[in-house]
Amino acid sequence: MRLLVVEDERRLASALQKGLRAEGFDVDVALDGTLGLNLATEHAYDLIVLDIMLPGLNGLDVCRRIRAQAVDTPILMLTARENTLDRVAGLDSGADDYLTKPFAFDELLARMRAIVRRGRTRQLSAILEYGPVQLDPRDHTVRVAGARLDLTATEYRVLEQLMMHPETVVSREQLADRVWGGDLDPGSNVIEVYIGYLRRKLGDGDGDGGPIETVRNVGYRLRGPRA
Ligand code: CA
């Protein structure tokens, strides 16, 4: 799991990073809201831990802007005290849950697990849509402009990863991890092969190569409609 921690208190940020890495998570840290927002919208995180009290762009603004860009990564807000107003505002701004400082590290872990579990169920039951492409996790069907596509199970899982994080780069490592369970030889071109199958099945749009964009040396993303 890849996490983003947005927290301006350096000591707390580095303690969280250390503790979460020790639990086996990949952790990026942003010490201010602007960097946090940029990272959150450019990378596919599994969870964001977001402090409300940040200099400049505060946590509520960051959360609203993340949601405004249709990024539905689960967000756990950190509030400075037992402040009802902050908690309500946090949930209103699109956060999934909140935790009051100071907190025990184990409590943070428990909340994170609960949010990710809930997020999975939510994602599993919601139809994902991107442009004309519709993916229904309930029966694993994919339609383009209403016409059903015939995808293999692996093609489906690759497309699902891209559609869960539209307009965000999904790295080769993330695909290897989430689709193949980390079971790929690093030199293998299996991911390219499957992306190729998907591109053929999705069609190439208006001749511009279709919705799956290659981000060199990193991975792939579903790109936004061309202006
Ligand atoms: Ca703070």
Note the main attributes of this structure.
single chain; 227 residues; alpha/beta; Rossmann fold; Arc Repressor Mutant, subunit A; 2 domains; 5-stranded parallel β-sheet; 4-stranded antiparallel β-sheet; 8 helices; 12 strands; globular; binds calcium ion
Task: Give a structural overview.
- This protein has 227 residues and is α/β, with parallel strands linked by helices.
- It has 2 domains: 2-124, 3-Layer(aba) Sandwich (Rossmann fold), CATH 3.40.50.2300; 128-222, Orthogonal Bundle (Arc Repressor Mutant, subunit A), CATH 1.10.10.
- Helix content is 43%, strand content 21%.
- It has 8 helices and 12 strands.
- The strands form 3 sheets. A 5-stranded parallel beta sheet has the order 2-1-3-4-5, with helices on both faces.
- α3 links the parallel β3 (47-51) and β4 (75-79).
- α2 packs parallel to α3 (59-68), α6 crosses α7 and α6 crosses α8 (190-202).
- The longest helix has 21 residues, at 105-125.
- The mean pLDDT is 87.
Map the helices and strands.
Elements: E1 2-6, H1 10-22, E2 26-30, H2 33-42, E3 47-51, H3 59-68, E4 75-79, H4 84-92, E5 97-100, H5 105-125, E6 128-130, E7 133-136, E8 141-144, E9 147-149, H6 153-164, E10 170-171, H7 172-180, H8 190-202, E11 212-215, E12 219-222
Parallel strand pairs: 1-2, 1-3, 3-4, 4-5
Antiparallel strand pairs: 6-7, 7-8, 8-9, 10-12, 11-12
Helix pairs in contact: 2-3, 6-7, 6-8
